[in-house]
Design brief:
By secondary structure, this protein is mostly helical. It has 8 helices and 2 strands, in the order H-H-H-H-H-H-E-E-H-H. It has a two-stranded antiparallel ribbon. Helix 4 packs across helix 7. The radius of gyration is 20 Å and the shape is globular. The two termini are 40 Å apart.
């Protein structure tokens, strides 16, 4: 098809089917619980203390820099460059917002929104939806918050994730 609406509907249906999770049966949940109950807990009190520390502006700025310059913004249209350019003006408000999300355990829904684009997997003719891959452009605030959490967790991962299970760390 060459109709934009049909192409959008085809892509939406394809990826919704591909990425939708299936519900676990009661039997699957019970088996999973048995396995999880056998695992040794490896998070120490010291680790917990470190993980629940507050968020400081120096960490926020470091996370912002780590996200990188010239990255695509999400649907908010705000790039890390903009945040860095006006850092002295926004540092308190930005840090306070991230601290509030951290302490409440909930983030504004707008932070978690993204724009999904399809990018061809191969060069040449891409007439099959399977030859495209979706990528989601996330908002900069979300990226910074995720980077803060990932940076905080990173030192503890070798202690809590087995070396054979580190593929996506």
């Amino acid at each position: 098809t060459k109709d934009a609406n049909e192409m959008r509907d085809t892509a939406t249906t394809f990826y919704k089917n591909l990425l939708t999770s299936q519900q676990f049966s009661d039997q699957q949940i019970q088996k999973r619980k048995i396995v999880l109950d056998c695992l040794e807990h490896k998070v120490s009190y010291e680790m917990v203390e470190s993980l629940v520390k507050g968020i400081f502006s120096t960490w926020v700025r470091a996370a912002l820099v780590a996200v990188g310059k010239n990255v695509c913004p999400g649907n908010d249209g705000l790039s890390p460059d903009l945040f860095l350019k006006y850092w002295d003006d926004i540092v308190d408000v930005f840090t306070t917002a991230l601290q509030e999300v951290f302490h409440l355990g909930r983030m504004p829904i707008e932070w978690n929104e993204g724009m999904i684009y399809l990018i061809p997997k191969v060069k040449g003719v891409v007439d099959d939806i399977k030859k495209w891959r979706p990528i989601t452009l996330l908002n900069t605030v979300y990226k910074v918050y995720a980077k803060l959490l990932a940076t905080r967790l990173q030192p503890f991962l070798p202690h809590i994730v087995h070396k054979t299970q580190t593929c996506f760390i």
